[in-house]
Amino acid sequence: MNQNELYQQVILSHNKSPKNFGKPATFTHWAEGFNPLCGDHYFIYLTIEDDVIKNVFFEGEGCAISKASASLMTESLKNKTISDVESIIKKFHDYMTLSQGNLKDLGKISVLSGVKDYPARIKCATISWHTMKQAIETPVSE
Amino acid sequence: MNQNELYQQVILSHNKSPKNFGKPATFTHWAEGFNPLCGDHYFIYLTIEDDVIKNVFFEGEGCAISKASASLMTESLKNKTISDVESIIKKFHDYMTLSQGNLKDLGKISVLSGVKDYPARIKCATISWHTMKQAIETPVSE
Amino acid sequence: MDKNILAKIREDFPILGTEVNGYSLVYLDNAATTLKPKYVIDRLSKHYLYETSNIHRGVHFLSQQATTYFEEVRDKVKSYLHGDSTWETIFTKGTTGAINFVAQSFGSIFNSGDEVIISQMEHHSNIVPWQMLRDRKNIVLKVAQMDERGILDLEHLESLITEKTKLVSITYLSNALGTINPVDKIVKIAHSKNIPVLIDAAQAIAHITIDVKKLDIDFIAFSAHKMFGPTGVGVLYAKKQLLEKMPPIEGGGDMIASVRFDKTIYNTIPYCFEAGTPDIAGVIALGVAIDYINSIGLKNIEEYEHKLLQYATQKLSEIKNLRVVGTSPNKSSVISFVLDGIHPHDVGSLLDSKGIAVRTGHHCAQPVMEFFKIPATTRASISFYNTKEDIDRLADGILYVQSIFE
Amino acid sequence: MDKNILAKIREDFPILGTEVNGYSLVYLDNAATTLKPKYVIDRLSKHYLYETSNIHRGVHFLSQQATTYFEEVRDKVKSYLHGDSTWETIFTKGTTGAINFVAQSFGSIFNSGDEVIISQMEHHSNIVPWQMLRDRKNIVLKVAQMDERGILDLEHLESLITEKTKLVSITYLSNALGTINPVDKIVKIAHSKNIPVLIDAAQAIAHITIDVKKLDIDFIAFSAHKMFGPTGVGVLYAKKQLLEKMPPIEGGGDMIASVRFDKTIYNTIPYCFEAGTPDIAGVIALGVAIDYINSIGLKNIEEYEHKLLQYATQKLSEIKNLRVVGTSPNKSSVISFVLDGIHPHDVGSLLDSKGIAVRTGHHCAQPVMEFFKIPATTRASISFYNTKEDIDRLADGILYVQSIFE
Ligand SMILES: Cc1ncc(COP(=O)(O)O)c(C=O)c1O
Ligand SMILES: Cc1ncc(COP(=O)(O)O)c(C=O)c1O
What we know:
The complex is a heterotetramer, with 2 copies of chain A (about 140 residues) and 2 copies of chain C (about 400 residues).
Chain A: H1 9-16, E1 29-35, E2 40-49, E3 52-61, H2 64-77, H3 82-98, H4 119-136
Antiparallel strand pairs in A: 1-2, 2-3
Helix pairs in contact in A: 1-2, 2-4, 3-4
Chain C: H1 3-11, E1 19-20, E2 23-24, E3 26-27, H2 38-51, H3 61-80, E4 87-92, H4 95-105, E5 115-119, H5 128-137, E6 140-144, H6 154-160, E7 165-171, H7 183-191, E8 197-200, H8 212-215, E9 219-223, E10 234-239, H9 240-243, E11 256-259, E12 264-266, H10 280-296, H11 298-317, E13 322-325, E14 334-339, H12 344-352, E15 356-357, E16 359-361, H13 366-372, E17 377-381, H14 388-404
Parallel strand pairs in C: 3-15, 5-6, 5-7, 7-8, 8-9
Antiparallel strand pairs in C: 1-2, 4-10, 9-10, 11-12, 13-14, 14-17, 16-17
Helix pairs in contact in C: 2-10, 3-10, 11-14, 12-14
The complex binds pyridoxal-5'-phosphate (2 copies).
């Protein structure tokens, strides 16, 4: 795959008009994630009820890959149980960083498959996922 | 000159039986000199009266070049005025480290001339001279 | 520099003949690290092939020889910076190592409440060591502002100085913006209050003639790898008079005069600041890098790079939806820019797909990004082996990136 | 190792074909620095010729490639030391850099009165950093004794341990005496009181198979240049669990997650401990040095060197008025000796005149010299490319020296 083929239409459009973007008025969990190498910087805000992710928003700055990945992630994780979400995160992470398995049964997220071949960009694809994981474990303190 | 020619008879004999070696019962000035690179370690003890070096002893450990140089130095500086001593020290130092002038008019000391061609050994030849200079400036405190 | 000379110079850098992603390499990432001329590489090889030895402590031939070659480089540094015996060359592992050493050693004689002044355009290497000192010793870190062109506000800097100010530490040439700071004026302001000045010359060293004597710089830090030398070596060139007040920070071999368990006596300057086996081969190769720059002539380099930067600025300003970040009239070698609606990371990736190496991100200068309210920039940074064709390739590449995001 | 293999190995080290003072070189100064095989030198050249780039922060091809090669070496270190993911590789500028880092960072969490135990046979690199910490934080530095053969007194070491002991830091292989210390027992003693152990493996690394897992070593430090790699690079390999408690000591690029003037967040381990541009080429070449050792096999090296050391010990013991310093039955690679009435410096100079490179002096271990009441020794230190003929040349050289001083 050529590098430019990374930038498929789906990715470009999620980059341009990300889903679930912004800071919600209320949320129960949240986390902040950096990629110090390129300056990507995202926030994830969750509303978790009865072990289900009722609502998820993200906010921040980053490249098209990272933004599209965050946008696609929020779409696909909403209304899922924590344990489902955790296994999806693991699947995504194992594929991207360990080249294990594939993304086929993760729906639209599979448009990110090609990123794996560009080590420089893997962190772009995974930053929001890492942050998601952290958010699940981080309830709002007051 | 071959390296082994450094080890002339005069040097070998001064190494074996150094002159003015040991710590005198009384002295007015003294200093300690190290060569951290090879572990040479010398003390110079002076008795200075009326700006004349009445007595000079040295003590310590070092290679044949350093010991012979110290021994030859003590022989030649005894009973000289401080200002004479300082100019001899300068002459020796300039010759060894800056390749300026020669040691011809310094009597026996000239057997050390060849050392200059062995950068590794120059510090061996000069350590006692540096220490001498320091000793002149360091009166015994109590 | 005419075409023929340039062509000859480019032959000194074998990497310029390679391909990346099917295109001949356009290397515009010189501010991150410069390429290495074959003379430097050959010198490294020669050392390891025929001269390998540890230095200082050996009486045998190889050790003597390596010691001589190593020590000669202190003088080469001195000449390159137009210093004299009032200064001393201390080898470090890089600019970062040099600045940290000053923060730890010179900083150890600061008191709680003492102040250090840096600027808003510093590299993290000239920020974080002072923050660490702040946390350790409760000093105050003050930041001189810049304006929206990326020009340092000298009046603001001067206004920050108090009786508690112990050091002014400023970059000569901003790696994120390309701004050349008026070191002469900065030193005058600081010295008028008896405050020493540290200059981060990591970028300047390969692009600007530096005269420490005329400028009266107290400390200056730079890295070999940004001046055509190897990685792993840097220099702190500093006034002896200040070094004499500074304690060693690292202990070990070579930096001692004598070691006993109860009491250790340190070696003399500069050795007391160079604990352990140094990067012998790297230092010797730095000497060759200096020779190489001198053989081309810094004046020629400055002149050529100035023209090339002007050309690049002109060329890029013709591109729509592109904004250059850092627009001081006094710039060198660096051009940072942002494209509307396209993140620099994507720009960098797509330029790379065309064989063009630029850097994207915050360039270890996050406060600069914060100032301009941008997450990152794309940075093209030139050296004397770059050509107008490189700039043309860059401009075409940018248009290609924009076409994808249309 | 048979003659043919040895001859082939010697061809990997071009310097072995050179002459010194008219004689073919006999290099017996391996404890100071080892020679470099052509593979290591070629790898350095290749990096600078075709792969030059800064790492971590670049999205372009060259930067990615260099980052991959650089990061791979952490794993090579892991395998070489038989570690697992419980440990982390931190690149430093050498053994000295690594030990100073532990003293500064791990030492920063010590309190006044806390104790560090070292031994009487340590290199200055494992003494002075602790003395500096003593002066800074008022800790107590305790010294485990050795006997007149140069064997560490384990009972004495154990008796030094109190509730205040925070670290035991001991050399694996003494560079001055050749003694191999019983690291397994040292660790057991220390761990039984929950005290971590730092092992100075500067010498051991090229001569002894090290299994950090079996030995359960907490920190281990070594230099690339003493294991056929380049100068300027070293490693601290350490348990993550301990690293997690340790603050960064140097600030700058690459070691941060985010920098604001008011607050900076550090990067994760190991990056937070590696401020600034590292010695990229040097680290990559260290990887090749490890590959090279593996290709010969440490087991083979240990076996061959053991025999060669026995041969040398036998040969030298036949020389009158020669005394070997360091007579532990458990030794490796180093033979230190003194000649009655002849200072080692003279021995070294005159051996050099015959093309034989040995080291003379205190070998950065002055307390060892003090213990044996000698100012210095002459030290011959071997590697796997040395031969019986080298030892014969040394023995003949010593007789020649004695003949001059007769
Ligand atoms: C036992 C020991 N420790 C530490 C060191 C210091 O190593 P380096 O100078 O490479 O930092 C050495 C080498 O001289 C050594 O032999
Ligand atoms: C202005 C400036 N200062 C400091 C540094 C740090 O240099 P190094 O990473 O070689 O220590 C750099 C390079 O990234 C720089 O551009």
